[in-house]
Amino acid sequence: MAAYILRRILLMIPTLFGIMAISFAVIQFAPGGPVEQVIAKLTGQGGDSTDRISGGGGADLSGGQMLDAGGDVSSKYRGAQGLDPEFIKRLEKQFGFDKPPLERFGQMLWNYLRFDFGESYFRKISVLDLIIEKMPVSISLGLWITLLSYAISIPLGIRKAVKDGSAFDIWTSAVVIVGYAIPGFLFAILLMVLFAGGSFFDWFPLAHLVSDNWHELSWPERILDYFWHLTLPLTAMVLSAFATTTLLTKNSFLDEIRKQYVVTARAKGLSERRVLYGHVFRNAMLIVIAGFPGAFISAFFTGSLLIENIFSLDGLGLLGYKSVLDRDYPVVFANLYIFSLIGLLVGLLSDLIYTWIDPRIDFERREV
Predict the structure, then answer these.
(1) pLDDT tens per residue across span 269-313
(2) pTM for the whole structure
(3) Domain 128-365, CATH 1.10.3720.10 — does that match?
(4) Residues with Cβ < 8 Å from 63, sequence gap 6 or more?
């Protein structure tokens, strides 16, 4: 097993390199980079994204930069006519675009190997500190939605398998399918209108992870306040999160229940509970565990983007989205690198859990 783990870890290196290389290449052809963002701000052409640019982390936007159009440098950027070419060169140097792409890519990889993600282009903060600052919201949403979805779907899927074809199985399937069909963001808006002071009740808060006076509360009150803020976002996300796992659990259990070893166990006089949880459970849960990494990564990093927007929760999903709009490349690439690395590590962890649940599985003898 040690050799298999080592091979998997070594394979993460070219995988990460490929992800970063492709993303970096795509960015080179994307219009509206950080230099264009500053130019748009100067010339009054910027929209919402450029309005968020602050002089502290970016360029010096002081006067004296407007000159007659001219120079090859200014002609490279849309809207740069009339700006001093020397000012454009200073912008390129400040953002690192004065170096060839291969040199910039190599320097980025070297820094990322040391977990040095640099500083945000448009904020007075390092990228790592910025990610850590937004992490509590994403951890809260991702962790609780994963735990809730599995806590609901696994028992429900087992019960549906045992009661296959019954009235309970039929009506729960209808609920699960309808819940899965309703978009999470649409259900979130409905919850907001109904219970967050929209048009009916004002029972739950609409913004932030905790109240402003959270530090003044006692520990029991802090816990209650924390879950009070999470109630609506988690309800909106969990509606569709457990549907796939529920049906997967049911079908996996049905497949195992029909096998000969289950018939033999029942013939020996074992109770139905002993058969289900002593024999069937371990084999049936393998396919469910296989989907855990994808479900975890989706809930943790991507699934909460719209929910964070709707409920004004400033987490990693919202940070990544705004960074793409602002062309804040250090934040974009740092998010991509960290998320990809965690995804690869969670995939390895899933394989290790495989072998723990079923020792018959031996990845050591397989080709990676």
Answers:
(1) 888 888 888 888 877 877 777 666 667 676 666 556 778 888 888
(2) 0.73
(3) yes
(4) none
Give 76-84 contacts, CB < 8 A, sequence gap 24+: 77/35, 77/36, 77/39, 78/31, 78/36, 78/39, 79/36, 79/39, 79/40, 79/43, 79/45, 80/39, 82/43, 83/39, 83/42, 83/43
Burial of 237 (0-12, 13-18, 19+ CB in 10 A): buried
The per-residue pLDDT for 176 is 87
The low-confidence residues of the chain, meaning pLDDT below 70, are: 43-84, 198, 290-294, 296, 298-304, 357-368
Assess contact for 171 and 348: CB atoms under 8 A.
no
Distance CA 364, CA 13 (A): 20
CA dist 123 and 312 (Å) reads 20
308 alpha carbon, distance to own chain's centre: 11
**Residue 354 in contact with residue 361, Cβ under 8 Å?**
yes
Task: Give the alpha-carbon dihedral of 212, 217, 221, 227, to 10 degrees.
Answer: 30
Q: What angle do CA 306, 309, 313 make, to 5 degrees?
A: 115
Instruction: Give start and end residues of each alpha helix (H) in 30-82.
Output: 34-43, 48-51, 72-75
Question: Quick one: 287 exposed, middle or buried, by C-beta within 10 A (0-12, 13-18, 19+)?
Answer: middle
- 191/134 Cα distance (integer angstroms): 24
Q: What is the pLDDT of residues 133-179, one digit of tens each?
A: 888 888 888 888 888 888 888 889 889 988 888 999 999 999 888 88
Tracing tokens 């804040």 back to the chain, one arrives at 328
| Domain spans of the chain, in order of start | 15-125, 128-365
